[in-house]
């Protein structure tokens, strides 16, 4: 029991650090930690992850909100739209083989790592430290240079469509895999609405909490098994880690943090693929 508690606390701190420092990404590690280190069944792990990630995100958002880094209207609209597909994703979760679910997780981790690395190459990581200049920063998308606009709250029809599509995808992933999707939300807010990185991170945390709540609401009626003896210490440790993550993000290069975390995601993804493939 002591060993389980220690692992839950360590895992929670790691996830919290990522959420607090990067505004997302850490939630992808929650399910692998629960499954492989704490022996929780995959479906139960995704349900538990919704609680851990949702609660931690809203707590972490408080400090960002105090700093003026949350755009509440955008967060609520994005979150409510995402909640629609979060219900569908949660329903789909119950019909998938647990090992296939884990393989999907591994694929998502690789995608997230790639998205994070691309963001650092475009210079977004440095913008996290310089909010005053981020709103008009040049962002390179593939071979095409895209200039983000100063934050006005207005967007073109194409940008709105892209934002809506992101919300629907994030919502489904939240319900299906129990992840927050911050690695998709943050770039969408930067590119579609011209938000600086600090504002995108803070707003992303609120979106994650809303979509997580929507997905968990669907599971409440199904009698989903929640290992509370693990979830509670894990969540409390994640909350503590999120506050530490905010401090770390103010002192350490966001580019270095993002690249290190992306490398960790790839390593964990390889481990998950090997374990899940052997169990099939």
List keywords for this structure.
3% strand; two-stranded antiparallel sheet; single chain; mainly alpha; 2 strands; globular
Describe it.
With 280 residues, this protein is an all-alpha fold. It has one domain (2-279). The protein has twelve helices and two strands; from the N terminus they run αααααααββααααα. It has helices at 2-22, 27-37, 42-66, 72-93, 98-121, 124-127, 131-134, 157-177, 182-193, 197-220, 228-251, 254-279, and strands at 138-141, 144-147. Strands 1-2 form a two-stranded antiparallel sheet. Strand 1 (138-141) and strand 2 form a beta hairpin. Helix 2 runs antiparallel to helix 3 and helix 8 (157-177) packs across helix 10. The longest helix is centred in the C-terminal third of the chain and has 26 residues, at 254-279. The protein is globular, with a radius of gyration of 17 Å. Mean pLDDT is 80; it is low at 124-148.
């Amino acid at each position: 029991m002591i060993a389980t508690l220690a692992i839950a606390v360590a895992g929670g701190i790691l996830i919290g650090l990522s959420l607090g420092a990067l505004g997302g990404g850490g939630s992808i590690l929650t399910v692998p930690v629960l499954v492989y280190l704490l022996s929780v069944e995959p479906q139960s792990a995704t349900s538990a992850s919704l609680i851990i990630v949702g609660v931690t995100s809203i707590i972490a958002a408080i400090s960002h909100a105090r700093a003026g880094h949350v755009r509440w209207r955008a967060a609520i609209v994005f979150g409510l739209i995402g909640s629609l597909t979060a219900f569908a994703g949660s329903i789909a979760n119950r019909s998938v083989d647990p090992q296939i679910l884990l393989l999907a997780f591994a694929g998502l981790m690789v995608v997230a790592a790639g998205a994070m690395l691309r963001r650092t190459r475009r210079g977004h990581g440095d913008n996290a430290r310089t909010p005053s200049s981020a709103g008009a920063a040049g962002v390179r998308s593939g071979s095409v240079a895209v200039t983000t606009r100063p934050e006005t709250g207005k967007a073109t029809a194409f940008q709105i469509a892209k934002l809506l599509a992101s919300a629907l995808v994030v919502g489904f992933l939240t319900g299906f895999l129990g992840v927050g999707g911050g690695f998709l939300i943050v770039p969408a807010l930067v590119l579609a609405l011209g938000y600086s990185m600090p504002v995108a991170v803070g707003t992303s945390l609120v979106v994650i909490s809303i979509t997580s709540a929507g997905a968990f609401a669907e599971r409440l009626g199904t009698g989903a098994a929640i290992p509370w003896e693990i979830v509670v210490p894990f969540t409390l440790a994640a909350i503590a880690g999120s506050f530490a993550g905010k401090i770390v993000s103010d002192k350490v290069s966001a580019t270095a943090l993002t690249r290190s975390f992306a490398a960790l995601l790839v390593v964990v993804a390889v481990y998950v693929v090997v374990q899940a493939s052997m169990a099939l």
